[in-house]
Amino acid sequence: MRKTRLYSTLITCIITSIIYAIPRLTVVAVVDGMTSEDLNLLRPYWQQGGLRTMSEEAFQTTIDYPHLVYGGNETTATLMTGVTPDRHGYSMDYYFVRRDRRLHAMLEDSEVHGIGTYMQLSPKSLLSQTITDRMRLLYPNTKIYAIGLNPETAVILAGHAANACCWLDSDSLKWVATAAYSEGLPSAAYEQNENGRISQLAARQWTPRLDIPAYAAPTPEERKKGFSYEVGKILHHAPEANSLVVELALAIQKAEHMGMDATPDMLMLQLTTISPAAQSDRIASAEHEDLYLRLNQDIGFLMEQLDKRIGHTNYQIMIVGRPVLGTDAQTLSDIHMPVQRFSTDKAAALTGTYLMALYGHERWVDGSYGQSIYLNRTLIEQKRLNLETLQRQVANFLMDFEGVQIAMPGYEAIRYPMLCTTLNKKHSGDVTFLLQPGWQLMRDDYRPIDNVIDDKPTSPIMLWSGTIRPMPQEKLDATNVADLIF
After folding, report:
1. What is the rounded radius of gyration, in angstroms, for the C-alpha atoms of the chain?
2. Which of 13, 99, 223, 343 is 20 to 30 Å from 48 at the Cα level?
3. Where residue 289 falls among pLDDT bands split at 50, 70, 90?
4. What are the backbone dihedrals phi and psi of residue 327, each rounded to the nearest 5 degrees, phi first?
């Protein structure tokens, strides 16, 4: 009886794996700024196109984030790894280094060189497996390529195991890459650099494709004059950026014969809906809406070409939004929820003054970033002071600051679920604090550290597959997204 039950279970697993086999090609597109509200707003305007197809045929829902969202690539890392920043290690786009008391890019790696760029980046700081890593473990011969609009996103999408990743450099108008991956700059990207395609699109003028009254949310200025941009000056926020990503994806697919054999392959893409004048992720202008309409065309073109090349049933596409700007301060102020600013740099300076009053005129604070203050541990040790005592004194001092909800020594952050999942031990400071709702982290020069000021931002996700796939029945957490692929 026991053997019979075992054989039955084994046969069920084999049948399930056959029915729900991973398609030959998986395309994952992370779309900066895309929101569920905007997709719903524009759905009636799409007579055809990729987003129209996705809205009618794809599994779709919204996802929550179980950690603080700053508008950087901490969300990309969570989506790609299926774990929170405390485990994948990417808490914010930058981190403070005590050695030189400067901010460094999270993916900075002095041991690798850039290809066509001075940037030295690698996925070494990502501490967890990504979707692409899991695919490589399952299928060692899989082909994986990542194409982005900015370097950090491209590297996170590529993970540790991609063949290559590249991103669009707006200064040189070329695709550039990092040597952290075995193939360097893909040959298709090199060809696009040489044939002048990027320069050709950058030379265009972006103007409305529809009459202004046909848009849902034109600004008063747009009603008078429309809008017009030289694409080359705002390339990363122009429709042509999405077109270039899709064109390169199709060129790589063709050159590398992706999706043409039994081994599943992956294309990882970054697209955008953030227009040049956007202050929020939500549509508030005709140019913002126009960017969505043209993205709809690009995704439709991608699906149309994959239908022709590898067959309608041999690929799947996942599209997921990424919070970048959130709700702008003016919109919140209009509904009587004003956003107030908190300067971490000024808080650190006042903390230094406070400790001078207690322990003498020395540099007691090394620096600050995000929601952390870094004490001068070398000086504390030299003075033979107790680090924990100073941490508690600083935490109590910060509690008196307007806007601070809670402050604590860094080692106590584990007691607070939101901070526990947000901070990684390697990059957190000696004292950590959490702001009250409606407060925004700022640098001393009043540049925002966190763009997203919504309390609990969400993202839309759509998964279209040409084959039958099991789909979840409930709302998703951001850490569950990676599991949809497999």
Report:
1. 24
2. 223
3. very high
4. -95, 130
Distance of CA 103 to the CA centre of its chain: 20
pLDDT for 268-288, tens place per residue?
999 999 999 998 999 999 999
Does the pLDDT at position 31 exceed 90?
yes
Residue 46 has pLDDT above 90, yes or no: no
What fold characterizes domain 23-326+457-484? Alkaline Phosphatase, subunit A (3.40.720)
CA angle centred on 126, ends 345 and 69, rounded to 5°: 50
The DSSP line for 400-459 is: TSTTEEEEEEGGGGGGSHHHHHH--TTT--SEEEEEPTTEEEE-TTS-BS-----SS-EE
Q: Which helix (H) or strand (E) holds 460?
A: strand 458-465
Structure tokens at 175: 């695709």
DSSP 282-347: S--SHHHHHHHHHHHHHHHHHHHHHHHHH-TTSEEEEEEEE-SS-S-HHHHHHTT---EEEEHHHH
pTM of the model: 0.92
pLDDT of the residue at 7: 44
Residues 6+ apart with CB under 8 A from 50: 295, 296, 297, 298, 299, 300, 301, 302, 303
What number is the average pLDDT over the span 464-468? 82
Fold of 340-442: Gyrase A; domain 2 (3.30.1360)
Q: Which of 6-20, 89-103, 321-335, 403-417 has the lowest mean pLDDT?
A: 6-20
Backbone angles phi, psi at 65, to 5 degrees: -110, 125
* Residue-range domain boundaries for the chain: 23-326+457-484, 340-442
DSSP 310-328: H-TTSEEEEEEEE-SS-S-
412 is written with which tokens? 């106590």
Pairing of strands 59-64, 458-465: antiparallel
**b/e code 54-77 from CB counts within 10 Å (16+ = b):** bbeebbbbebebbbbbbbbbbbbb
**Amino acid (1-letter code) at residue 173:** L
Token pair recorded at residue 227: 């809008």
pLDDT tier, 16 (very low <50, low <70, confident <90, very high otherwise)? very low
Kindly indicate the confidence band of residue 476, based on its pLDDT and cuts at 50, 70 and 90: confident
The share of the chain scoring above pLDDT 70, in percent, equals: 94
Spatial separation of the C-alpha atoms in residues 212 and 249, rounded to whole Å: 32
Q: Rounded distance, CA 44 to CA 366, Å?
A: 54
Q: Contact at 8 Å (CB) between 424 and 84?
A: no
> What is residue 121's DSSP assignment?
B
d(CA 128, CA 86): 10
CA 422 to chain centre: 15
